[in-house]
Each structure stands twice: as C-alpha cells, then as structure tokens.
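Dear Dr. H.,

I hope your travels went smoothly. While you were away I took the liberty of generating a structure for the chain from your last submission, since the lab meeting agenda had it listed for discussion. I wanted you to have the full record in hand beforehand rather than looking at slides cold. The sequence, exactly as received, is reproduced here:
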Amino acid sequence: MELAMWMFNLVGKVFEVSHDYFDTATGMSAFCNALTTVAIQTITRKAIAEGIPMENAIAIASQCIRGTVSMVLSGVSPQKLEHSLSAPGSITELAILGRRDSQLLALLESSLSAAITKTKG
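The corresponding predicted structure, in token form, is as follows:
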C-alpha cells in the first residue's frame, strides 16, 4: 500500500476512502476523467475550426482547465469562482447562463449517475 501511494502521489493526490463510498468515488473519478477529456476534445475541435492551430488549441484549453482546477484546489469554492469570473455581460457570464439554460446539467448528472451505478454493479 505504501509503494502504491508513493507512486500515485508522484502524479497527483492520493485519497484513502472508506469502503462505504469507494464505489461512488471510483465512479466519480472515472466520470471526471471522461468529462475533462471530452471537454478538451470538443473545445479543441471548435477552436481548430475557427483557425487556431491544433497545438495551440489543446494548450489553451488544457491551461484554462488547469487554472480553474488550481483555483478550486487552493480553496476557492466553485460557486465563488463562477461568480468572480462572470462579470455582467462578460463572455464567461454568457457561457455560464447558456449552460444553465441548456440540458447540459441534466446530462452531466445522468452520466455521473450511470458511472456510479456501474461501479456499484
């Protein structure tokens, strides 16, 4: 166990979870990896279609996600971060409002539920 924790700590943070929520944490982790990968692919594809070179598109999308995650890991709540990034009339605010008005949240929740159900099955 010590060796595994040492190895995984080299690339990220290791969490010890109780058996009570191990399946949920596993499904959540798998879903986050899938969501991030799909988001980067989607953002990159659109950016390339708009003329940004692939390497730049991947780097920009990845760096934006990394920055957001860094702020959350430093203690900024997702709600506070969303609020601070979405000045009235800003591009970020329009993107956030569009997300709320779409079926994206329902789709994300159902996909996460499916991932958790799979780990419990």
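Two observations you may find useful: Helices lie at 2-9, 22-49, 54-73, 78-85, 91-101, 104-120. The longest helix spans residues 22-49.

With kind regards,
E. W.
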